């Protein structure tokens, strides 16, 4: 199945959503290449980036689940072309 490389940029402003976010990421762990999180305490926000290599429908499902969490916003950027 063809996969794509993508980067999810996630901002968490509602600390009560962190556990649910980590649960979602755990469900998709087989597709995660790497992740970085930065707690920005001064602004009470956590900044995360998640690099994935997955089929398009998996990336869309992951992004959609994350976007439904309260106080969490995300955007996805894709590398050009597919990977097989």
Automatic annotation (TrEMBL):
One Pfam match, by short name? Answer: TM1266-like
Q: Which SUPFAM superfamilies match?
A: ACT-like (SSF55021)
Q: Which organism is it from?
A: Candidatus Avoscillospira avistercoris
Q: Which domain of life is it from?
A: Bacteria
Q: What is this protein called?
A: Iron-only hydrogenase system regulator
Read off the NCBIfam families from this record.
hyd_TM1266 (TIGR03959)
């Amino acid at each position: 199945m063809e996969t794509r490389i993508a980067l999810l940029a996630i901002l968490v402003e509602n600390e009560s959503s962190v556990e649910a976010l980590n649960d979602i990421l755990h469900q998709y762990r087989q597709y995660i290449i790497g992740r970085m999180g930065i707690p920005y305490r001064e602004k009470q926000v956590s900044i995360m980036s998640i690099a994935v290599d997955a089929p398009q429908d998996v990336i869309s499902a992951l992004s959609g689940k994350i976007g439904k969490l309260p106080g969490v916003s995300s955007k996805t950027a894709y590398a050009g072309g597919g990977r097989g």
